[in-house]
Design brief:
Layout: H1 10-24, H2 29-53, H3 56-63, H4 66-86, H5 88-91, H6 97-108, H7 114-122, H8 127-153, H9 163-193, H10 195-219, H11 222-225, H12 228-255, H13 260-270, H14 275-285, H15 291-317
Helix pairs in contact: 1-10, 2-9, 2-10, 3-8, 4-6, 4-8, 4-12, 4-13, 6-8, 6-15, 7-8, 7-13, 7-15, 8-9, 8-13, 9-14, 10-14, 10-15, 12-13, 12-15, 14-15
């Protein structure tokens, strides 16, 4: 039977089911403690596999394009946060403090890896550079996200930057990632052959963290304290935020003289925010706070960016080109950027 077009993808349905389950059957007490241990193990495994999947050859191939990577990093870690802070007068009357904190947290996160590369490839962009930029963004995000969040929310009384939080993130995310890179020498071929299967580890880890975070938030009264109008406002805000960033990255790449393939890479890597990295980081950075409410804007933004960028990638792919894309997704030689 053909899947109805109006249905979202399976992972989106799983996220909805997980939030629904946590709303009616939240994990509590000693069970929540044990569940937290399992979740931490799953997060460690997730980043270990991210490290094992990352090809060093691909990174080296794309790493030389420093101007492109600089633009992506500035978009991800400077432009996004500045927009989030600038929107405070507009957003504060529309959403709860925790939801606005979630918007700020979203703005401080690194780019996605898989979807940025996939959309760049679909749109016939510079795939090696996308691999390098997206991967570097996630690696730097382990250190930069806590610092940026701390700077944006200083004086609000919320959790923010601390050396303990950075150390916890390094232990839970960076150490497994580095271990995966080291282990790639022995398990890299196996990981490359089973990427389709290993995506369930990625998705399963995210679902575990979402269930744990929303369980805690529900116990603390998330749905009683969050009006429907605030949820609707978050959706509109996410759409507007993504539209602004897509416009600025497109305009900026053209103004700086990048060719079309590089423009595509900048647009897709510079406009994304990672759910896979964001939920675990929030779980550490905001321990003891309403993590469920804080990650809610990110979950909504994640779905909006996937649907929007899928349409945008198809539009890029239909463009006329003077040269054919290579089989590996890298563009044929083009004039250097000015």
């Amino acid at each position: 039977m053909k899947r109805p077009r109006f249905l979202p993808d399976n992972f989106t349905l799983a996220l909805i089911a997980t939030v629904t389950l946590a709303s009616f059957l939240p994990v509590q007490g000693h069970t929540a403690v044990v569940f937290g241990w399992v979740t931490n193990f799953a997060i460690g495994l997730l980043f270990f596999l991210h490290g094992a999947k990352l090809s060093r050859e691909a990174v080296i191939a794309g790493a030389t394009h420093w101007r492109l990577h600089a633009v992506v990093m500035l978009s991800t870690f400077v432009m996004f946060p500045l927009i989030g802070v600038a929107l405070k007068p507009l957003l504060s009357p529309l959403v709860t403090p925790d939801l606005y904190l979630g918007i700020l947290f979203l703005c401080a996160l690194p780019s996605t890896v898989q979807s940025s590369i996939a959309f760049t490839s679909m749109a016939r962009g510079n795939v090696p550079a996308a691999i390098c930029s997206a991967s570097a963004s996630n690696l730097f995000g382990i250190f930069l996200t806590p610092v940026i969040v701390g700077l944006m929310i200083s004086g609000t009384g919320k959790a923010g930057f601390s050396f303990d939080s950075v150390l916890s993130i390094v232990e839970q995310l960076l150490v497994p990632f580095v271990a995966g890179q080291i282990a790639r020498k022995w398990i890299g071929n196996w990981v490359d052959k089973h990427k389709a299967m290993l995506k369930y580890v990625d998705q399963g880890s995210i679902l575990l963290v979402v269930y744990s975070a929303f369980s805690e938030a529900v116990v603390q009264g998330l749905w009683h304290n969050t009006p429907v109008s605030a949820l609707a406002a978050i959706v509109v805000i996410n759409i507007a935020l993504l539209a602004v960033v897509l416009f600025l990255t497109t305009w900026g790449s053209r103004t700086l003289g990048f060719n079309k393939e590089d423009e595509i890479t900048i647009v897709f890597c510079g406009s994304k925010k990672s759910l896979a990295s964001g939920v675990p980081i929030a779980n550490v950075l905001f321990a003891g706070h309403a993590v469920g409410a804080i990650v809610l804007p990110l979950m909504l933004f994640h779905q909006i960016q996937l649907m929007t960028c899928a349409v945008l990638a198809q539009r890029y792919a239909r463009r006329k080109s003077d040269h054919a894309a290579r089989p590996d997704g890298a563009p044929a030689p083009a004039p250097a950027t000015r």
